[in-house]
Automatic annotation (TrEMBL):
Xref: CDD domains: AAA (cd00009)
One GO MF term: ATP binding
Ranges for domain IstB-like ATP-binding: 63-172
Protein name: ATP-binding protein
Keywords per UniProt: ATP-binding, Nucleotide-binding
InterPro entries assigned: IstB_ATP-bd, P-loop_NTPase
Protein source organism: Clostridium weizhouense
Amino acid sequence: MQPLAVSCECRKIEKLKNEWKSSGINTEMSTQTFSNFEVWNESSEFAKEVAIAFYNDFKNIRNNRQNSILFCGQVGSGKTHLSVALGINLLDKKIKVVYMSYRDVLTKIKRNMLDDEYYTKIISKYQTCDVLLIDDLFKGKVNESDINIMFEIINYRYLNHLPVIISTEFTVDRLLYFDEGIGSRIYEMCKDYVVEIEKSQENNYRLR
Ligand SMILES: Nc1ncnc2c1ncn2[C@@H]1O[C@H](COP(=O)(O)OP(=O)(O)OP(=O)(O)O)[C@@H](O)[C@H]1O
Ligand SMILES: [Mg+2]
C-alpha cells in the first residue's frame, strides 16, 4: 500500500506545481529563489535572514500558534520574490503549498459567488491546504465582500493552526485598520516572522 500512497502524494504536488505555472510562476526554473536574492541593503539582508530562518524552522513550528510569515511594506522590495522562494522550497519538500494571487482569486470567486458548490469548493481549497501563499493581500479596492471572503479563509486557517505566507504592501497597522479581525489573526500567526520593509524608494529593488 505504501508506494501507492506516496505516488498519490507526488501527484498532488505535481498538480499544485502545474497550478503555480498557470499563475505565471514556473517552479522548476523560477528566478525567484533564495540564491538569486541579492543582499543589497539592510532591509534586503533582514528580509532574507527571516525568510531562511522560517524555512529552517518550518518543520518544528508548522503546527504552532506562530507558524506563519508576513512580508509587508515597500513596493518592489522583494516580498513576492522571497514568498515564492519559500513556497517552492516547501513544495520541493512535498508540502502542499497553494499559490493565491489575491486579486485574481478574489475576482474569480466574486464572479462565481452565486454558484454555491463552486464557492464552497474554491474556499475550502484555500482554507485547507498545507500552506497558503497569499500574494499581494488587499491589493486594489477592498469592499465588504472581499473582507468576508478573506475572513472565512484566514479564520479557518487560524483556528486549525495552518500556516500562511503573506506578501502585502500594507503595514501591520494598516492591515488592522482594514479589518481588525483579519489583521490581528494574521499578526498573531506571523508575529515571530514579520518582515516590515520601510516605505522608501531606497528599498525598491526595481529603482536601485
Ligand atoms: N534583493 C533582490 N535580489 C534580486 N532580485 C530582487 C531583489 N528584490 C527584488 N528583486 C526582483 O525585483 C522584482 C520586484 O520584486 P518583487 O516583485 O518581489 O517585489 P514586491 O515587494 O513583491 O513588490 P510589489 O509590492 O510591487 O508586489 C522581481 O523581479 C524580483 O525578483
Ligand atoms: Mg509582490
